[in-house]
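Researcher: Let's do a round of design. I'm pasting the C-alpha cells now; please hold your answer until I've finished.
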C-alpha cells in the first residue's frame, strides 16, 4: 500500500482536509478543486461502490486494515495520530477515517429525467443536515432522482454525506436551472409538479396520492420561508400534509419523507 506517516499538521499533502468545519471555505474550495470528503468506513465504502475515485485517505492507525483493503495501492494513505487529525480538520474525527474523493461530473437534468417517474426537487434548502436527510428519505422510499436548485446546499458536503449515510451516492442527482426554465424541463419530460406548501388552494396529500399522476416531481422548499413564489406559481398542484394540535408544518426533510411514503404505491422502485 501507499502508506505515508504524517507528523506535521502543516504538511501540504493534507491540503484537501484542512478546516473541514469552515462551511464557507469548504463550499468554495471543494467544487473548485473537484473533490468532496467522505467520513467513516461505511460512507467511504458506499462512495467506492458507486464508482467514485479516491484522491487520498487520512486516518488513524486502528482503521488502517479496514480502509487499506478498500482502496488501490496507488491511493496515498496518510496515517496520523488523533490530535493531528483534529488540528488539520478542526474537529475530533470520531469515525477515524476520511477520504478525499474525486467529485463526479453531474449529469444533464433532461437525461436524468428520461426514465424517472418520481423525483424530488429541492429548492434553496441551505442546511446540510436537511439535504442529507432528504437524500436518505429519497433512497429509502423509492424516489428515482433528486434535483436541487442552484442555491441549494451541496449534497456532497461532508455533513450532508454523513447524515445521508452515503445515500447521496445511490440516488442520481443533479442541479436544476432557475425557474421558469426548470418548469419547462420538467413539463417536457411529462412531470406533474406537486409543490409541498401551505396555501389556501392546497389539497391534502392523501387526495393527491390517489389522483393517479404517472410522473410526479415533488417540490420541497427552504427552511423557514418555504417555497418561493416562483416555485408555487410553477406548480401544477399545491399539496399540504394535514396537521393536528395547532402544528402548521413539519421540518422539510420530515415532510418530504411523509410525502414520499404516501406516494410509494403508485411509484414503487423498479
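Researcher: That's everything. Go ahead.
Model: Designed sequence:
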Amino acid at each position: 500500500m501507499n502508506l505515508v506517516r504524517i507528523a506535521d499538521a502543516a504538511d501540504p499533502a493534507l491540503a484537501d482536509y484542512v478546516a473541514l468545519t469552515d462551511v464557507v471555505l469548504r463550499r468554495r474550495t471543494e467544487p473548485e478543486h473537484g473533490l468532496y470528503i467522505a467520513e467513516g468506513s461505511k460512507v467511504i465504502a458506499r462512495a467506492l461502490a458507486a464508482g467514485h475515485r479516491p484522491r487520498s485517505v487520512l486516518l488513524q492507525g486502528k482503521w488502517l486494515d479496514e480502509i487499506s483493503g478498500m482502496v488501490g495501492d496507488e491511493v496515498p494513505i496518510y496515517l496520523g495520530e488523533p490530535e493531528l487529525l483534529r488540528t488539520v480538520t478542526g474537529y475530533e474525527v470520531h469515525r477515524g477515517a476520511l477520504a478525499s474523493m474525486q467529485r463526479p461530473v453531474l449529469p444533464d437534468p433532461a437525461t436524468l429525467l428520461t426514465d424517472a417517474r418520481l423525483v424530488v426537487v429541492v429548492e434553496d434548502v441551505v442546511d446540510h443536515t436537511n439535504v442529507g436527510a432528504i437524500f436518505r428519505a429519497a433512497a429509502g422510499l423509492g424516489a428515482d432522482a433528486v434535483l436541487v436548485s442552484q442555491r441549494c446546499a451541496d449534497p456532497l458536503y461532508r455533513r450532508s454525506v454523513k447524515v445521508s449515510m452515503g445515500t447521496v451516492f445511490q440516488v442520481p442527482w443533479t442541479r436544476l436551472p432557475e425557474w421558469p426554465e426548470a418548469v419547462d424541463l420538467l413539463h417536457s419530460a411529462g412531470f406533474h409538479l406537486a409543490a409541498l406548501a401551505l396555501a389556501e388552494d392546497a389539497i391534502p396529500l392523501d387526495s393527491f396520492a390517489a389522483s393517479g399522476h404517472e410522473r410526479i416531481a415533488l417540490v420541497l422548499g427552504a427552511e423557514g420561508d418555504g417555497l418561493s413564489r416562483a416555485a408555487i406559481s410553477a406548480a401544477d398542484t399545491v399539496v399540504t400534509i394535514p396537521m393536528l394540535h395547532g402544528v402548521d408544518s413539519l421540518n422539510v426533510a420530515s415532510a418530504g419523507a411523509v410525502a414520499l411514503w404516501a406516494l410509494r404505491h403508485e411509484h414503487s422502485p423498479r
